[in-house]
Each structure stands twice: as structure tokens, then as C-alpha cells.
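Section 5: illustrative case.
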């Protein structure tokens, strides 16, 4: 991705079809289009330079709390609290003595800010270290407390690892959902365009019949197709469908 579009100016010029093809099966393809819109906004509003503050980043398409803070901390080396799934779990265990983090809230940002050491360098390293600890040592299902540098100060360990009794976010299913059908429909366009030899700014059109072949449930397939059109991930003309260019 970086080799193809090294900066916002290059990505802003790319065709949507090319961006969606490069995104491949990463999931949530709307994010690919938001990233391109974000690059265009950076070119228009910030002269092609990624802004270095959280508020300006939050104004950009597709950028939320986590991304804005991660960019400021990890790309610009400024100590703002960053909270991802792994950090949330470590804070819940070490600081609050609970096995799992509750559904996301502003409170976690405040907790992280309170725990961070002063100074940009130390603060950023702390965020990266807690994130890594959550990914590699204090994992969701198999925390390796014997190897953990926080073992002596971990409230959950000290309390004897009590089971979690708080609220949980509903788990997201994938198989059989509209998301899966949307992915299958996009695959037809993406793979077809890649095999067609057409340029990135040329449409590769497929018939309705080719799309109908990917999923047996007419109602669900129609719903998925309509939502792809509404999201700007597909375009339609003369009864045929293409990635946007
Ligand atoms: S002691 Fe165990 S539960 Fe506590 S932070 Fe370390 S790995 Fe996680």
C-alpha cells in the first residue's frame, strides 16, 4: 500500500476501484474509501501534510478516537493517551482487578492519562508497551502471569482472578450475515477487474446474473447489493455493475 501510494497526495489521485482492489479482503471495505477521502481532505485542508493534533485529525473522514490518538502518539511522538482492545484489557486487570474491560467509554482514556508517565518519550513508550503487553503476555484467553512485568502490581491476579460479571459487547457474527454477502459480491468485481487487464480508471462491468450466482437467498443478496450501491462501493449502469472509478 505504502509503495503504491507513499503519501496522501498519491492516494488522493487513485481510482476508487484500485483502492478497493488493493484493500482486498481486509474487511469493512468502506474504510478503504474513507481512507481515500481522508487523503483528499488532507491534500485540500492541510496541503498534503498529515496534521499532528487530535482535533484536526478527528475532522477527517474515517478518523475516530483511536486512529487520531495513535497517529499523534506513534507517528509524531506526542504523549496523548491511546486506548485499543489490548490496552483496555490490561488496564481492567492491573488497575481495576477485573478480568475484562467493560464496553468502551471515555473513562478508559482518563484512566490511561492518569497512568501514563510524564514526558513525550516515556508517555508514548508506555502506550506502545501496554499495547504490546496485552497482545503478547496478558492475552484475553491465556494470560502468562509468570512472565509478566506487572505481576506484582496486578489487582486481578492479587484478587485470585475473579470471573468477569460486568456488561459485554455482543459478539459479531460473520458467517451468513449481510457482511459476508457484501464481501462475496465485491470479490466478483475485484477479481474480475484484476483479471481483465483494464486500467485502474476504467470500469469493469459484470451482469446481474454473475452476481446472483454468489448467494442463494434472493432477498439477502438484493439487500447486500443495494447497501453496496448506497455506500458508493459499487455503481450501476444499464443493469450492469462495476467498482467506482
Ligand atoms: S499479571 Fe497476569 S493478568 Fe495481570 S497484567 Fe500480567 S499477565 Fe495480565
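Designed sequence:
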Amino acid at each position: 500500500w505504502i509503495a503504491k501510494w507513499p503519501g496522501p497526495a498519491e492516494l488522493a489521485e487513485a481510482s476508487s476501484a484500485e483502492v478497493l482492489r488493493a484493500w482486498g479482503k481486509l474487511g469493512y471495505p468502506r474504510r478503504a474509501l474513507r481512507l481515500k477521502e481522508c487523503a483528499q481532505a488532507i491534500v485540500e485542508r492541510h496541503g498534503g501534510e498529515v496534521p499532528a493534533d487530535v482535533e484536526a485529525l478527528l475532522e477527517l473522514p474515517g478518523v475516530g478516537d483511536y486512529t487520531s490518538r495513535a497517529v499523534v502518539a506513534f507517528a509524531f511522538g506526542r504523549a496523548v493517551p491511546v486506548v485499543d482492545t489490548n490496552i483496555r484489557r490490561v488496564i481492567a486487570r492491573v488497575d481495576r482487578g477485573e478480568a475484562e474491560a467493560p464496553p468502551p467509554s471515555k473513562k478508559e482514556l482518563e484512566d490511561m492519562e492518569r497512568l501514563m508517565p510524564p514526558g513525550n518519550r516515556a508517555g508514548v513508550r508506555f502506550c506502545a508497551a501496554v499495547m504490546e503487553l496485552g497482545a503478547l503476555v496478558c492475552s484475553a484467553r491465556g494470560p502468562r502471569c509468570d512472565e509478566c512485568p506487572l505481576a506484582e502490581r496486578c489487582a486481578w491476579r492479587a484478587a485470585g482472578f475473579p470471573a468477569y460479571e460486568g456488561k459485554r459487547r455482543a459478539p459479531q457474527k460473520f458467517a451468513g450475515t449481510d457482511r459476508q454477502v457484501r464481501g462475496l459480491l465485491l470479490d466478483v468485481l475485484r477479481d474480475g477487474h484484476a483479471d481483465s487487464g483494464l486500467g485502474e480508471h476504467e470500469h469493469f462491468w459484470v451482469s446481474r446474473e454473475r452476481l446472483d450466482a454468489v448467494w442463494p437467498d434472493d432477498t439477502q443478496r438484493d439487500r447486500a447489493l443495494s447497501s453496496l450501491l448506497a455506500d458508493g462501493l459499487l455503481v450501476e449502469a444499464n443493469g450492469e455493475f462495476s467498482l467506482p472509478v
